[in-house]
Amino acid sequence: MNKTSIVILTYNKLEFTIDCIESIRNYTTVGTYEIIVIDNASTDGSREWLSDQSDIITIFNNENYGFPKGCNQGIEVATGDNILLLNNDVIVTTHWLDNLLLALNSSAEVGAVGAISNECAYYQSISVNYKNIEEMQEFAKNINIHNPHEWDQRIKLVGFCMLIKREVINEIGLLDEIFSPGNFEDDDYSFRIMKAGYKLLLCKDTFVHHHGHATFSANSKSFHNILHQSAARFKEKWAFDSRYSTHIRFDVIDFMELPRSDIPINVLEVGCACGGTLLEIKNRYKNAELHGIELNEDSAAIASLFAKISASNVEHTLEYQENYFDYIILPDVLEHLNDPWSVLKNLKRYLKDNGKVIASIPNVMHYSLLRDTLQGRWEYADAGLLDRTHLRFFTIYEIEKMFDDAGFMDMNYKGNVIPIPEGDEEFISKLASLGSSSVEQQYRVYQWLVKAERNDLIENLGGLIKRMDITSQQEMDLSEIISLIKNNSIEPLEIIKLVEGNAQKKQTTYNYLAIGLYKERMFDHIIPLLSQSLNINSQHTETLYNLGFILYEANEKELALEYLHRIADKDEDTQELINEITLN
Fold this sequence. Notes:
By secondary structure, the protein is an alpha/beta fold. The chain folds into three domains: 235 residues, Spore Coat Polysaccharide Biosynthesis Protein SpsA, Chain A (Alpha-Beta Complex), CATH 3.90.550; 206 residues, Vaccinia Virus protein VP39 (Rossmann fold, 3-Layer(aba) Sandwich); 127 residues, Serine Threonine Protein Phosphatase 5, Tetratricopeptide repeat, CATH 1.25.40. It is 43% helix and 19% strand. It has 25 helices and 16 strands. Strands 1, 2, 3, 4, 5, 6, 7, 8 and 9 form a nine-stranded mixed sheet that branches. β2, α2 and β3 form a beta-alpha-beta unit. The chain starts with a strand and ends with a helix. The model has no long low-confidence stretch (mean pLDDT 92). Pathway: Cell wall biogenesis; cell wall polysaccharide biosynthesis. InterPro entries: Glyco_trans_2-like, Nucleotide-diphossugar_trans, SAM-dependent_MTases_sf, TPR-like_helical_dom_sf, TPR_rpt. Pfam families: Glycos_transf_2, Methyltransf_23.
């Protein structure tokens, strides 16, 4: 029978340690594990209690060596086939170790696995509703049901409950003690496991309770100092910031909304960092082919372990097959570019017909930025709306225009909102009172998510309108244009945009289109187009006649006469039409 060595580090907090050990005894099969506790010079009676436990292997340090070194001491004396690093503020649950072992041993490619919890970093926590430990155990029973479909591949696992194959440890070595007293040693170990060719699995069919930061929470200032120090050491070792480069953009992925999880899709992420978002896409869509662009070679090296990664600059020529991707995602990218408008136009070439781009873009209309501006401040920072690396700034108006000009359609928006202090609501209300109330929500949105579809149809229609503008009336064939408008339900506003952007003789074009649309009885299209023509010149004879005629056909006689009377003295045909309308 295989044996698991459970390595637990303690530094005071005896009450947590007792609960942890008792839960292991109650919920783990006897004979399948050994418990190794390394105590880092506790002074609260932990050493005495541990000494009285006959089923625990103990190591007592005379000083606090920190988490990595303490764990390494335990690993070195462990005799198990697998090593489980477990925080002493964890309470384990029914089938916890059985489920973790099933995942760990499911493939030779799997190097380590982790559990979910109520309190854990890096997206390993879930919402819970229990109020005590008894209710927690009942809650866990409903989750801890073996299910391989609940195993997600991850680029890192948090070390509070991390099960690792002994052969992997033998291959990559012990925890790196430069991260003492703690933090980021699990990030480092996760990446080392992956670089050795193994996968990491998060087992969402295994729940354990975690109090969280039992050792460091007593001194929050000390904890944050240690966190900052370890983050700096990680960046020095790996040449990228783990906190920034491992984000999983669940909000972006949720915006994809594909109908089935088995659909083969090709996805490109620009600025993919270590590939956390790409890998989560793969977890949801098993047949996804992953591509990424990342300029940081060190973080790109992690992503390249499971995706096709290019070091290309998205503002330069890209070596992708045209019409290839179902999705191109740009999370917090466009604001960093010199020419995001051209980038969007270029990326469209690589999307399939009806392919989509999803982008997240900071909102320069957020009330906090406007408030600072009104107070004379525009201060760049290391992160946030005024990140010093931002080159471009957008409101929703500029975002929509940028996507529209690039040839995208069916734009959908979602606003990410961060908590707003109660006192700031009054300021938002005052802002809204200065302008249109319709923009009040824009003051609350911190970041916009936008999804848009490749729109070759609109681009083709624009080209036809441009060609129509230089064709004589005798040679005019509107059938293709009218067919595109009708068969694809193109809205009048979109047609107006295309005429304004492509036609030189705009009023002539509007009237030609009205004639073609009349044959299809598309009055809802004709009237807006002719109204736009009158906005250019309110006395345009042809437009006034055509508009009057169409309104008469639409049984709007009084309105028809209003337009026709403007030109009654100029044209015999107009007078005849007026007489006909009057008599009827």
